[in-house]
Amino acid sequence: MTDKGKKGTTRSTHPPTRRDFIKSSGGVLGLAAITKLDERTQNFSAAVAPPSTVSFPPEETAFIPNSTKEDPLIRMQAELRRAMQKPAAERHWAMVINLRKCVGCHACTEACVSENKLPPGVIYRFVMDEEIGQYPNVSRRFTPRPCMHCDNPPCTQVCPVGATFKQADGTVVIDYQRCIGCRFCIVACPYTARTMDYGDNYLEDEPEDSGLVLGYEQGGVWQSASNFEYGNEHSRTPKRDSPIGNARKCHFCLHRLEKGMLPACVTTCIGRVNYFGDSNDPDSLVSELIANPGIIQLKSELGTDPSVYYLF
């Protein structure tokens, strides 16, 4: 049965069926869905919109107070040039290593080997791999261990010929012409930062003229090419100025510093773990990091006062 209204419209007197309810509510649900989709589209558009300025990730400068947020390498490069304009006695080289960012890629170790032409068994910067915690909360920690360039180095105190000594800028060096290979300094170092060069090569049975591995400096075999540690040329032939038969260690790439370049390990690190500069400069990046409450020195209880610091 139907009733007719004043304008001739027909109105059903039967109760609404399930089909009628779905038809009437479909429009409302569709409108709500379109409205929600429009909101999500607007939010997505805002999320993918290009930023007006480009900034570094927060972890890049999280431990750098008063930082200008510029690339740390660019800042350290400028600070290096500023420090090199001062007398050696007025600067003190220091390094800060951020263990929170080290992933154990060993790129710094490889860069050091390449830069200093290190033979088998000689390593200046090994990376200690530790497993810490208890199952199931287990993680790995990587700790790069270069020479600490201590302010109170035990290695210099035991050398019978004065071949290893501390310079005015705080770096501890080795004079290859004086060293007699007694290895007293290797035993005295509490950080195992020194190794002995026994004259081994990677290609013991390969003829020198084979050209199998070329060195870009002299066009010869890489292992026979000279290195330029301490700013002097040192050949791999057993003569007085050769490092063969001597103790060897990290020297903060002094030959690079003299040319206005940062140490090879600093520029190579993919995670920006290493920071280097003049700790006597209160405005330098390393000075700001050393003032961080999370900074430590390895085995500080020994009184060696290392110039290498770690952020835990």
Automatic annotation (TrEMBL):
InterPro entries named in the record: 4Fe4S_Fe-S-bd, 4Fe4S_Fe_S_CS, ET_IronSulfur_Cluster-Binding, TAT_signal
Organism: Dehalococcoides mccartyi (strain CBDB1)
Keyword Secreted: no
Coiled coil: none
Signal peptide (UniProt feature, chain positions): none
Annotated spans, Disordered: 1-22
Keyword hit for Cell wall biogenesis/degradation: no
Keywords: 4Fe-4S, Iron, Iron-sulfur, Metal-binding
Protein name: Molybdopterin oxidoreductase, iron-sulfur binding subunit
GO molecular function (one): 4 iron, 4 sulfur cluster binding
Domain 4Fe-4S ferredoxin-type residue range list: 93-123, 170-199
